[in-house]
Every structure is written in C-alpha cells, then in structure tokens.
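User: For my dataset I need records formatted as: sequence, then structure tokens, nothing else. Please produce one.
Assistant:
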Amino acid sequence: MSLISHPASLAGLVTREVRTGSRDGVATRVAVARRTYPTDRDDLWDALTSAERLPRWFLPVSGDLEVGGRYQLEGNAGGLVERCDRPSSFAVTWEYGEMVSWVEVRLLPDGDGTALELLHEAPVDPEMWEQFGPGAVGVGWDLALMGLGVHLETREAVDPEAGASFALTPEGTEFVRTAAAGWSEAAAADGDDPAVAAAAAERTVALYTTGPEGGTPEDGADR
C-alpha cells in the first residue's frame, strides 16, 4: 500500500451513489460503488470469485462458492451465495453477527477495461445512519476496491499487514477522508440533509483512522 502516492486521486476512481429502497417491506439504503479496471471481465471475475485470488487483495474465504452454498470470509462476514451469472454478476447475503444485508456485484465491458458495480443494501438503523451515513460500509468497500486495483496492476498479493494499517497512515487518512466526503455527497443527493451527511462523514473518518482502540463500524465488517 505504500506505493500509493496520490490517494485522493485514487479515491476519485470510484463513483458513489446512495439509493433509498425496501426489501420485504423493510426500509433499506443501498450504497453503490463503481470503478473501471484495465482488465477483461474473465480476469476480474476470477479475482472476485476465486478462493485462490481473493486473499491476495481481500480476505481468505472458505465454504461452498456455488449457488446455494455458504461462504465465510476469515474474521469477517459470511453468507449465502444467492445467484451467480458468470462473468456478469453475482449476489450474496452479507451476514455479520446478527446483521444481515445483501451484496450484488455486476461486471460490464467498458472500453478496453471492465466496469465493476457493487451494490450493498442494508436495513436502515436511523441512529446508525445519522451517526455514520453510508460511509460506515462505503469506505470499507472503497478500501477493498483499492486493494483489488493494486493486485490487478501488480499481479501480486497485497501485504495483509500493510492493507490493514493503511487507513492509519497519512496517505490512508487522506484516502478515507476523500472517500467519506464522496459518500456524504451521495447521501445528500439521495435526500439527506447535507450538514447531517457531512457530520456523519467526519465521524466515519475518525472511526477508520484512529486505530484498533477506536474500532470501525461493525468492527470493520466491510473492510
């Protein structure tokens, strides 16, 4: 991660959107992150779904990675593989403790590369949303998408210790601040009060950049 010299520019590679939704009659909010990578769909699909490659940029995974099977990310979320349409999209439940949300990933050709669109839908906890906004999950996905980019560029594994501590470095703090501001703007575009969204972003930055004693939302469940 230390090879990142312009973290704000790198954070700018992701476009962010927040949507208001519902699932089974329960109000939800959807964090949508998009980034284009300079590789083809088959390669990107493999990086996202291969038990061998996932640990190189994200986390070790175990379980049955087929439709109907259950997966478990080491020290993080697990869930059910709900749908898999290679190489265009897949959907899983995202279960962390008693919290259940849903993640969908879509891959689309984009010029000479591939656009990745990640949607994370979760029930709305009004207090949590006011405190952290979409950055609680969004910034974690920004960090993961950055690690994916490093892996695709270098074809090497991201150092797990460097990845885990990146947000605590000056460059990492700049990256987190830029990403959190982007999620704040996306929340405001979906109807949140801009001042409330901005304050939530500042609290999100503090949580991601204060070290283990400060923790992160859901103990970093989406990082």
